[in-house]
Amino acid sequence: VRAVSLATIEKQDAIAKAAEQRAVANAQSIAPTIEPFYGAKAKDTFFKLLAEHYGAVKGYLEASVAGDVAKQGTATQSLTSNAEEIASFLSKPIFAEGCSQ
Length: 101
Hints:
This protein has 101 residues and is an all-alpha fold. The chain has helices spanning 2-9, 13-30, 35-38, 40-66, 69-91.
């Protein structure tokens, strides 16, 4: 995400696109780590939440580069809401199929 930010600020579109692909691959690597504890369906949900979080980060970045304070506010609200969704999701006592408590 740092590389995406720097490339976006410096208007290096090809570098930003490559960095964004790495950010998505990173989320795809993180999401499966919860599967042993929460199950396969949760992995997909977690990836969706991570993708939404990245989308809000990107929205904030683009608004910042454009100097659009209103869009920064909207992106900040999205980030906050998504962070709360992630925290709520991970705090639920869900266990993988076949696991006992």
